[in-house]
Amino acid sequence: MEYFKKILRFAKPYSKYGYLNIFFNILYALFSALSFAALIPMLNVLFDKTKKVYEAPVYSSLGHLKDYLQDYLNYRVTLYAADDEMKALVLVIGLVLVLFLLKNLFNYLAMFYITFLRNGVLKDVRNSMYRKMVDLPISYFSEKRKGDVIARITSDVLEIQHSFLSILELIVREPLTILFTIIVMFFISVKLTLFVFIFIPIAGMIISRIGKSLKKQSDRVQKEQGEFLSIVEETLGGLRVIKAFNAESRFYQTFKISTFRFFAYSNKLLNRQNLASPTGEFLGIMVIGVLLWFGGKMVLVDETLDASSFIAYMGLAYNILTPAKSISKASYNVKKGNAAAERVLEILETENPIVNKANAITKAAFEKEIILKKVSFKYEDEYVLRNFDLNVPKGQTVALVGQSGSGKSTIANLVTRFYDVNEGSILIDGTNIVDITKKSLRNLMGLVTQDSILFNDTVRNNIGMGKQNASEEEIIAAAKIANAHEFIAELPDGYDTNIGDSGNKLSGGQKQRLSIARAVLKNPPIMILDEATSALDTESERLVQDALEKMMRNRTSIVIAHRLSTIQNADSIVVLQKGEIVEQGSHNELMAIDGVYRKLVEMQSLAP
Question: Transmembrane region positions (predicted)?
């Protein structure tokens, strides 16, 4: 229940629907009991047992309430029908029909209002999860499988929705139905009702024992669902590689093993859950059987109860079975939903280590320089950067070169504050970036990555991500600077063409030029280019390189380079090895040294 207390906060905006649901559930429970009690006068008329009352009875005390109500009903029947039995029968049948109609009307209204609350909670939990997912640092998702996160925002949240409804029924509707029914049963026969109470706790104990392991089994099912969703996500992302290496059968086997485990866990969970209903019903019928024996003895032998009251009493006793079964089912759902709530709250309650300080400033412009001062950083155990120093003056292009794993991309991740440094500091115009709001810091920067990250949307919207409400002219101007306008104009719908999932309808060079256009439209003073041309053919590289040079004019740029031919005009080239600077200078200066940089250039020029 602790997890559901936390989920309850999402119900606050919809509390009015909750109160309306409770109100109509109270009326439903009341009329549910009264509709069965109304069978007594109908049976009395049928068996010709109706006592004729010609004067209105007078209420005396609570102890005689049952006799007063019975006499009053008989008085109304006598007054309306006199000696016409059919007229009396029509009256009492009408009473029964009205009570059952009201019962079902209130049931519908209760369910009508709870729908808004359930779906509202579902919507708000998903919105909160999505916002949290976007807000959490990139490092969080490098440790999580994407499929598991997708499972949490889809099936786990849906499970909470069903469980949430079950709890409301558990708290209000079904217990009240049982309470009102028992009150009416006490009116009919105190002795018989006390006899029923001996059996109800026994039945409850048996049912509760069945559901003890449900939370653990439900947790297994949900985790396994996340596992096979991750396999699906990885398969769709790497379909070309899978087909190229004829690895379809291998991935199919992995998926099959996961779905088999899901099959086994689901069977255990559902079979235990399904045991609730037949167990509850059998125990209920046992109680009914004992009641028939004990009540029959009161009617036939002791003659302390009349037959019509006993038949109505049996109907009321059976009326307890349905809510009792619902309570047992709801308690299972609560245990099952508890596991889902735990998984959802794990994401919602994860602390974001990269947050704005309370007194963080909003920086609107870049004026002097970027300084990395004694920066040390590690992703896990080993340091990627150690005591790293770098100065990037405004208006200059600084290129970072070195072998894979030397820390080039890490510098880009730290400057944009996707990660925080372990030691040292990064300063922009003398202000530590941790003292600047994340939004204003990233507003100063444009990023073009090696992998062109595009979205399943139109060309216009992909470029327009760089600037909200950008005009048509601005988008076209950015595309022209990025050498993208010509190929966009040839697309079926021009700028309104959908480029497919991850932009897969475009070539690598076209995708990269769209990424550059997006950065150009943003028009930031600082550009970070992370191996922006490394995955392109020669023709595409020429077009992209030309676009990059146009974009970098009058801007401060940090260029992470794989192809050294693309950064020969940089103001400063920094050569990295194992997170440390081994050489620094212009292209000509470094070539004259005859060191690491020159060897890298010669190796690339000799490469076919």
Answer: 22-47, 88-114, 178-207
